[in-house]
Design goal:
By secondary structure, the chain is α+β, with helices and mostly antiparallel strands. Helices cover 43% and strands 18% of the residues. It contains five helices and six strands. The strands form two sheets. The protein has a three-stranded antiparallel beta sheet with strand order 1-3-2. Strands 5-4-6 form a three-stranded mixed beta sheet, with no helix packed on it. Helix 1 (4-13) crosses helix 2 (20-31) and helix 3 crosses helix 4.
Length: 153
């Protein structure tokens, strides 16, 4: 994951003015390994900057995603962002739906698609959602406990 300094360097390298708000945003994503919704970010930023609009937060998230310092993932409950990986090669992710831990997919399945000649791919994403070993085990234990509790009634 990119550090706060790496995020700030990428932003200033693209000519963005590094305001106090952008420093706070970079720090939030540089220190947080999980996925955050725009609402999460807005609430975090609102504690420090009263009067900050949701549109300003969302616009900065989009800019940071376009610069490649944030990754955007669409979950069932909506769009979330996290700091980009600091791996310098193209890859995709498997994402645990419970703890949000990500695992790299170190090859690109795009090469396996049958892209028609009349279509030019300019961008793609490939994400696999499921449960990591620990979360799957916890889910199985909860299911077993719930089933056992029903038998006792």
């Amino acid at each position: 994951m990119l550090s706060t300094d790496q995020i700030l360097e990428a932003m200033s390298g693209q000519g963005l003015r590094i305001t106090d708000q952008r420093k706070t945003l970079a720090k939030l994503f540089g220190e947080n390994t999980g996925y955050l919704s725009a609402k999460d970010v807005y609430e975090h930023m609102g504690r420090k900057y009263s009067g900050l609009s949701f549109d300003t937060v969302y616009r900065n998230l989009r800019i940071m995603e376009e610069l490649g310092v944030l990754e955007q993932v669409v979950f069932e409950e909506g769009v979330k962002f996290k700091g980009s990986c600091n791996q310098d090669h193209h890859h995709h992710h498997m994402i645990c739906l419970q703890c949000m831990k990500t695992y790299p997919i170190n090859f690109c399945p795009m090469n396996l698609t049958d892209t028609p000649d009349q279509f030019r791919v300019v961008k793609h994403k490939f994400e696999v959602f499921g449960y990591c070993k620990d979360c799957e085990q916890n889910r199985e234990e909860e299911t077993a406990l719930a089933a056992h509790g029903k038998e006792g009634h």
